[in-house]
Write a structure and sequence with these properties.
Structural class: alpha+beta
Number of helices: 19
Number of strands: 13
Largest sheet: 6 strands, antiparallel
Radius of gyration: 30 Å
Shape: globular
Distance between the termini: 38 Å
Oligomer: single chain
Strand order of the largest sheet: 4-11-10-7-8-9
């Protein structure tokens, strides 16, 4: 089949399955040739929103069976291999071949586990947008092999959410355990037992647990002996200092600095271990023995050592004994973290194999659910069933992660005021900071090439979540001369993921949600970029508030559009705020 015929076939499938949408096709071949839009295309473009959608079909066209829709086209050129997603969904909905299903599931998980971070993030952003609002941005081909009746689209979308939730739950666990280094011998033994049911592995577990408990008991006994000695001396001579803590300070004042510093360090370490243990407790499932021991070792023992450690160091008879005591206290709580390295256990591989095994079990559980049971899951108040998220292509570009050779960067961008009045600094960040968080973005395209399929942005106005208002505009272009009738903006909590500019903005891609709660929930559930402390603090401050950017008449002292245009903008803005962001209406 020729490429032209294949694309015509795709257009026919779209028209049959998505007859309620204004369809527009710019195929990858057209993108490479940079063809302009036709007059009818420009009229269709005005009817299209900026949501990123997935179209899943059974027909494979030029190697693809999943197609990406943006504002500019319903067949966006994409780098991510989404076909595994189609095969995964199809095995549950139509073929019901569990051998094929588990094979596709393990392939998909392995592919995602091995992805380079930026490739994963663009994959996750695309699927997060497709799954937004109960997968309202996902469409299926109407055919006997997939969606036979359009009325079944709702249950198909819910099944899609349930299936992808298995994937993203495992990705979240893998990131926490492997990428963040939150492993220990107990979690490794659980993985080994899950994969091959090895009884011998429990020997390591019992040895580690008994060693840590024994050492802590010795510390407690030593503290009790110190207390008993103090009470005996106090009874013999009433002139002895009566306050134990004061006695300790008076007896060994030189040991106090080490005791204080060691206690602070122990508190920091105990906080991390306790947090990790509480977060990962779900990982054990029904293995209550390992779960209980992990909590005892990483929650109870650090707390006990924190209390007893200070006395143990301050009552040491010499400096070297105090140093040895401080070192031993840190060693006790680290034994379960050190043992996998001593045993040369392949922790990353063990955990990923375990997660794959668990995903298969969960998938088989889902296959036993009836449509009524799946619908029942969505009648509950589980917030993960309905996360709002948008992946917005403000300019036309392929979907892809970082490509250093082509100068393509996909990662969070910070936006700051420059040192010169009206100047704006935009740069890349490895994680989301408070300067990355935006509450509203408004843009206007250049007018030099009205039919171009790759429009550039001449004017960009940004309201940051921290209250700053910035604008980026093409030099020698009067803002009031741009077309202000078409209100193109997005509001909520967003970050810039792609930004490239010469005289005007060449590439611009955003992602985010309509509320702080959805934004935080989406980034956590889909394992997107981490937040730094400044972003966490700002999001916590804004949590529960209505996100609405103020409409000011000036920026940096410069007047922007006319009063009449400003009134129209305010009217459209407040109309939009009553429902959803204007570009999604």
């Amino acid at each position: 089949m020729s490429r032209e015929k294949a694309y015509r076939n795709l257009e026919a499938i779209y028209e049959k399955s998505c007859d309620d949408r204004a369809l527009l096709f710019q195929h990858p071949d057209d993108y490479d040739k940079n063809r302009d839009f036709k007059e009818e295309d420009l009229e269709t473009l005005k009817k299209r929103d900026f949501k990123t959608r997935l179209f899943i079909c059974t027909t494979t066209i030029l190697g693809d069976s999943v197609f990406l829709s943006t504002h500019f086209t319903d067949n966006l050129k994409h780098q991510t291999h989404f076909n595994f997603v189609r095969d995964y969904v199809k095995t549950l909905i139509m073929t019901k071949n569990w051998t094929a299903a588990t094979s596709v599931l393990t392939d998909l998980l392995t592919m995602v586990f091995k992805m380079e971070p930026s490739a994963y993030n663009t994959f996750a952003c695309t699927l997060a947008s497709a799954l937004s609002d109960e997968a309202a941005n996902t469409d299926f081909e109407v055919s006997d092999d997939l969606l036979r009746y359009k009325a079944d689209a709702v249950i198909y979308r819910r099944k899609f959410i349930v299936l992808m939730r298995i994937i993203f739950d495992k990705i979240s666990t893998k990131r926490f355990l492997v990428d963040n280094g939150a492993t220990n011998i107990y979690r490794d033994i659980h993985c080994m037992n899950k994969v091959d049911r090895s009884n011998w592995a429990f020997a390591y577990f019992f040895f580690c647990f008994l060693l840590q408990i024994c050492l802590v008991c010795y510390v407690i006994v030593q503290n009790l002996l110190e207390i008993c000695e103090f009470q005996r001396i106090q009874l013999e001579d009433d002139c002895i200092l009566r306050d134990e803590w004061y006695r300790i300070f008076a007896k060994n004042p030189d040991m106090v600095p080490l005791a204080l510093l060691s206690t602070i360090f122990s508190a920091m370490r105990a906080h991390v271990e306790m947090t990790e243990a509480l977060k990962i407790s779900y990982f054990y499932g029904s293995n209550y023995l390992l779960k209980s021991i992990d909590l005892i070792v990483n929650v109870a023992l650090p707390f006990i050592l924190l209390i007893t450690g200070f006395t143990l160091i301050t009552t040491a008879p010499s400096f070297i004994d105090a140093v040895l005591n401080a070192t031993a206290l840190g060693y006790i709580s680290a034994i379960d973290d050190m043992l996998p390295g001593l045993l040369q256990l392949p922790e990353a591989e063990l955990i990923m194999n375990c997660l794959i095994q668990e995903s298969i079990e969960q998938f088989l559980d889902v296959t036993e659910l009836s449509d009524e049971e799946i619908n029942g899951r969505f009648n509950t108040s589980d917030p993960l069933n309905n996360i709002h998220f948008n992946d917005i292509y403000v300019t036309n570009m392929p979907e892809q992660g970082n490509d250093i050779h082509l100068g393509k960067i996909f990662m969070p961008h910070f936006v700051k005021k420059g040192k010169v009045l009206g100047d704006v600094v935009v740069g890349n960040s490895e994680f989301v900071t408070d300067h990355c968080l935006l509450r509203r973005v408004e843009w206007r395209y250049t007018k030099g090439f009205p039919k171009t399929s790759r429009p550039r942005v001449a004017y960009l106005k940004i309201w940051k979540l921290n209250g700053e208002v910035l604008e980026v505009k093409q030099k020698d272009v009067a803002v009031e001369d741009l077309d202000w009738d078409m209100h193109q903006s997005v509001e909520g909590v967003y970050i810039i993921t792609v930004f490239q500019m010469s005289e005007s903005v060449i590439l611009l891609r955003l992602c985010g949600s309509k509320s702080v709660d959805d934004f935080e929930r989406a980034f956590k559930h889909y394992s997107l970029w981490d937040f730094d402390k400044s972003a966490d603090k700002l999001l916590s401050k804004m949590r529960g508030q209505v996100i609405m950017a103020p409409l000011s008449d000036s920026i940096h002292g410069e007047k922007v559009p006319t009063a009449e245009n400003q009134r129209e903008r305010r009217k459209s803005f407040f109309e939009a705020s009553l429902s959803t962001t204007s570009i999604f209406e």
